[in-house]
Write a structure and sequence with these properties.
- The chain is of the alpha/beta class.
- It has eight helices and 14 strands.
- The strands form four sheets. A five-stranded parallel β-sheet has the order 2-1-3-6-7, with helices on both faces.
- The two termini are about 25 Å apart.
- About 30% of the residues are buried.
- It binds calcium ion.
- The site of calcium ion has 5 residues, from strand 4.
């Protein structure tokens, strides 16, 4: 699961990302309005943690752009402004949740997870598909009684494909989703190809049918 943390307070940003990385999230950071806008326009996130007062502009404006573009990234506003007006404006602009600073990291984490459950699975923390049972809390996958031992990247890849079940996902989108590092060093197609191959093999070994289809020249798609 990929998060974007938009926060200009460096120490808070560092503690949020440290906490979520420990919980196996991929975290990207933005500290200014411009930087955040560029990421929001170019990438897809499972959840965005959004500060309102940013150098260069307002987080609410970012939220407005996001929803105008019909993007579905989950958004949790974290703001020092404890006014009802801000909260209402935020939720009105399409935020999924609102948390007032200061907050405890476990509280933020619980909100993020609950948002992801609502977003992907209408409240349940498990997904059953093609005979696979995926536990989103424990991050485990099984086929019938048999566990499917996936690496972190393979697991994230599978969940990303499931999340985008009805469309073709490009190799580039997958690479950007899986890769956690500086944008200019994002991995090439071989990176995605090898993880797809390993994921397919592991699923097949446990008796799962061929669910990942290659769409020539475009990317990958889950079988209907
Ligand atoms: Ca701020």
């Amino acid at each position: 699961m990929k998060l974007l943390v938009i926060e200009d307070e460096r120490s808070l940003l560092a503690s949020i990302t440290r906490y979520f990385r420990k919980e196996h999230f991929l975290c990207e950071e933005a500290t200014t309005f411009e930087e955040a806008l560029e990421k929001i326009e170019n990438f897809q996130y499972d959840c965005i943690i959004l500060d309102i007062n940013l150098p260069g502009g307002s987080g609410l404006q970012l939220l407005k752009f996001l929803r105008q573009d019909k993007k579905r990234d989950g958004v949790i506003i974290v703001s020092a402004r404890d006014s009802l007006d801000d909260k209402i404006t935020g939720l009105d602009h399409g935020a999924d949740d609102y948390l007032t600073k200061p907050f405890h990291l476990p509280e933020l984490s619980a909100r993020v997870k609950s948002l992801l459950r609502r977003k992907y699975n209408e409240g349940s923390a498990t997904v059953d598909l093609y005979g696979l049972h995926i536990d989103l809390t424990a991050r485990t996958v099984s086929m019938g009684e048999q566990p499917v031992p996936l690496t972190r990247l393979e697991y994230d890849l599978l969940v990303f494909l499931i999340t985008n079940k009805n469309r073709v996902v490009s190799r580039q989108a997958i690479a950007e989703h899986l890769y956690d590092g500086p944008g200019d060093q994002a991995p090439g197609p071989e990176f995605v190809y090898s993880h797809i191959k390993n994921l397919k093999r592991k699923l097949k070994e446990k008796g799962c049918k061929e669910i990942i289809q290659t769409v020539y020249g475009l990317g990958y798609k889950l079988a209907a």
